[in-house]
Design brief:
Blueprint: H1 3-25, E1 30-35, H2 42-51, E2 61-66, H3 74-83, E3 88-92, H4 93-103, E4 109-114, E5 133-137, H5 140-154, E6 160-166, H6 167-170, H7 172-188, E7 191-197, H8 203-212, E8 217-220, H9 230-240, E9 244-246, H10 249-253, E10 258-262, H11 264-279, E11 295-300, H12 301-307, H13 313-318, E12 321-323
Parallel strand pairs: 1-2, 1-3, 3-4, 4-5, 6-7, 6-8, 8-9, 9-10, 11-12
Antiparallel strand pairs: 10-11
Helix pairs in contact: 2-11, 3-4, 5-7, 8-9
Length: 324
């Protein structure tokens, strides 16, 4: 064998593994994103990633799957993401987290906006999650009861209060959300009437049933089924001329009377830190589940005037946002 042939063979022999090593080094992490619908707070998640040096389409690839975008169920979408061999899955809210959990026990899952991850069986405890799931709890049971308290403070004579929610939120943690609200209602000496929406098409029917019960006020729980209907819900509440407290800020900006809510942007932004740590090698089992720390009260005085309602000065002073 002449010298040139030997060099050519040797070069090919060593170049192949080197090329493979370089390709592996350049591999872009792939993130699965599973949600019922696109939410405004999603941008806060992307901002959190950018702050940690991750840019979609450059050094990471995000595979989005939204149930509202088509006819596929969340379970089928989760199977798609697993088939793509994603490095982790970001699951937004309880149904998406459940779908991801039932699809994989090995791929890390970062949950966001889940009311009670322990009660749902997603993690063993907040401090020691165990398994392949961690992330941001929504802390619904705590601030839901506080929202009811503020509604009663605004309208102290109300004794019959309707509660509007989707089926998933009502079932949260085996009914932990409902239990916490009933306990708060007992302390406040009010009766609650729960109105559960199973499907988007049933929203008008739910309001018709609610109005027959003649409530004096309304509490609208945060629910991913109801969120896309927020403008219609605000219209229906105005038609019923009910004072209402919503547990998502977007309802107040859409014309709702009052909103007491955690800062969803904070939760989604902090979820990016879980993604960063997991991509760098930390196991989900070793990352404690975090809870929201920021809560805000918004009051829409324009709506109050239209309904002929007076908001106590004590609440106006406390409000973080007053819409006029």
């Amino acid at each position: 064998m002449d010298r040139r042939a030997f060099i050519s063979i040797a070069t090919s022999f060593f170049a192949a593994p080197l090329a493979e090593a370089q390709q592996a080094a350049r591999r872009v992490p792939r993130i699965g994103y599973l949600s019922e619908a696109r939410l405004p707070a999603e941008e806060a998640f992307l901002r959190g990633l950018r702050e940690r040096g991750y840019i979609d389409g450059q050094n990471i690839a995000i595979e989005y799957r939204y149930r509202r975008a088509g006819s596929k169920e969340l379970g089928d979408l989760a199977v798609e993401l697993v088939g793509l061999k994603v490095d982790l899955i970001v699951a937004v809210a309880t149904p998406a987290t459940r779908a991801a959990q039932q699809t994989t026990s090995s791929i890390p899952i970062v949950l966001v906006d889940v009311g009670d991850p322990v009660a749902f069986g997603f993690v063993a405890s907040l401090a020691r999650p165990g398994g392949n799931i961690t992330g941001m709890s929504a802390g619904l049971t705590e601030f839901g009861a506080k929202g009811l308290e503020l509604l009663k403070q605004a309208f102290p004579t109300a004794s019959q209060i309707a509660v509007l929610t989707g089926a998933a939120t009502d079932a949260a943690g085996g009914g932990a959300f409902r239990t916490s609200l009933l306990a708060a209602a007992s302390t406040l000496k009010v009766k609650l009437g729960f109105n559960i929406v199973e499907e988007i098409s049933k929203i008008d029917e739910a309001f018709a049933s609610m109005r027959r019960a003649r409530p004096e006020a309304l509490l609208v729980l945060p629910d991913h089924l109801l969120f896309p209907l927020r403008e219609r819900i605000v219209e229906l509440v105005a038609e019923a001329r009910l004072p209402a407290m919503y547990l998502l800020r977007e309802y107040a900006t859409s014309g709702g009377l009052m909103a007491f809510t955690r800062d969803s942007n904070e939760s989604f932004h902090r979820a990016a830190s879980f993604v960063d740590k997991i991509l760098k090698g930390t196991k989900p089992a070793d990352l404690p589940v975090e809870q929201p720390t920021k809560f805000e009260l918004a009051i829409n005085l324009k709506t109050a005037k239209a309904l002929g309602l007076t908001i106590p000065q004590s609440l106006l002073i406390r409000a973080d946002q007053v819409i006029e």
